[in-house]
Amino acid sequence: MDYGEKPIRGVINVIMGGNEEWAKSNSKRKAYFGSVRNVKSPLKKPHPVQGWQVKFDKRDEDDILDTYSKDPLVVKTLTASFQVKRLLVDIRSDCIMAGLKERFQAFVNNRWLVFVAAMWMQSFTGPGYIFGSISPVIKSSLNYNQRQLSKLGVAKDLGGSVGFIAGGLCEILPIWGVLLIGALQNLIGYSSLWLIVTGKVPVFPLWAMCVLIFVGHNGETYFNTAALVSCVQNFPKSRGPVVGILKGFAALSGAILTQIYTMINFPDQASLIFMVAVGPTMVVFALMFIIRPVGGHKEVRPSDGLSFTVVYSVCLLLAAYLMAIMLLEDLVSVSHNLITIFTLILFVPLFIPIVLSFCEGHRDPAEEVLLPKPYQHDAGNPEQDTREHEVVSSEFKDENSEEVDSLVVPEGQKRIAQLQAKLFQATAEGAVRLKNRKGPHRGEDFTLMQALIKADFWLIMFSLLLGSGSGLTVIDNLGQMSQSLGYDNTHIFVSMICIWNFIGRVGGGFISEIIVRYRLK
User: Fold this and answer.
1) Which of 35, 251, 264, 383 could bond 501 through an S-S bridge, CB–CB 3.0 to 4.6 Å?
2) Topology, domain 111-293+305-358+477-518
């Protein structure tokens, strides 16, 4: 075959990336080598993905070797060139796989993915808020009076309040281990209650029933603790929004589970207890390895404000939608197919925040440590960095003005840098001594023993103890209150109180963050 005026050198140049003009104009070469896009020499530019664009297969190689079979030197040169080509193709494939692996690792270790997964888990793991819906069937099936039912409700509330065990286990176990214990407790407690209510096993004494519901509801403390610990460590500068949103979704789970129960259309009300036992456990098993503290950038970024605004918008949209469909189903006779559509649409807002996982860029933790402090803390406020540098420099110039002025300019700058380093070291040593003497301050991390000796801890505890009792009493007895007023379907009232509880918690986290962040400005 004829490859033009310069057959040997032309073929070699095309393979190795040279003589681009000849390669583009020769029609016979294109028949063997296909189109050439941005042919560059891999020897001059060693990046295999961008530098190798010549495409031809094994048959083309054999045809070329057959053409020049009479010249051993050419055959040897072409064979080596083909081997280089195949090597570069293999390297390109390895680079693509390495890039995909890196992207996957960055996605899995993204703190927004952990936050969204925690939101999903909290949306289905708050069974304590629908006790008002299952208490009527417990009362009728076990022939309990109101006093016995109230004792069962107290045991449930105690199970949801004893969370120090979960907090202690978070110090010695991984987060997935804490979630596993909580899921098993939820499954054992509520599934045993369902078996007793449906008559599949003999009725236990009242104290044993209290133990079962205590164990089942205590599993919720493991879910809350794991979600809060992971997300607060991932967002240490945005604790208010994180805690408010996660606790809000825990309250909203009552309305979500009720809507799912309405869609499935179980034959009896006792099936709601079965769904409470199985549903949260399945969700936790699916997300237990995603919810965890992750490395990387944990300080405030300029994009965090917009991201939390998106989450708040989703919260308001979800609450409004749930309220609308609950009222519609109660006031109008709605077909089961339409209820199914409403419930499926309910999951759409829950998946919107997953977009945040793709919006935040990934940075290696080692690179974060090497960054200067202004880039670690507030990359969007260069004026503050300039002011801090000017203040430090002016202090040293004031204290040592004569000494510094007597030096030449480079030597003076060097002297200022040395004095700055001494000041920073002295400040760090003083901070360590102060911390060892007085313990952590507000906003820092506390151990359990450090918190027990703080007045703030006991003030918060007694405030919750005195303030949340009335709300829990109403939630636990909402089913009996609704039936006493002549309403057969108590689910609508339980769902409404869950929705308003959700709005109050999310709003509380938002307002508290504003007060804490801007009160000193």
Assistant:
1) 251
2) Growth Hormone; Chain: A; (1.20.1250)
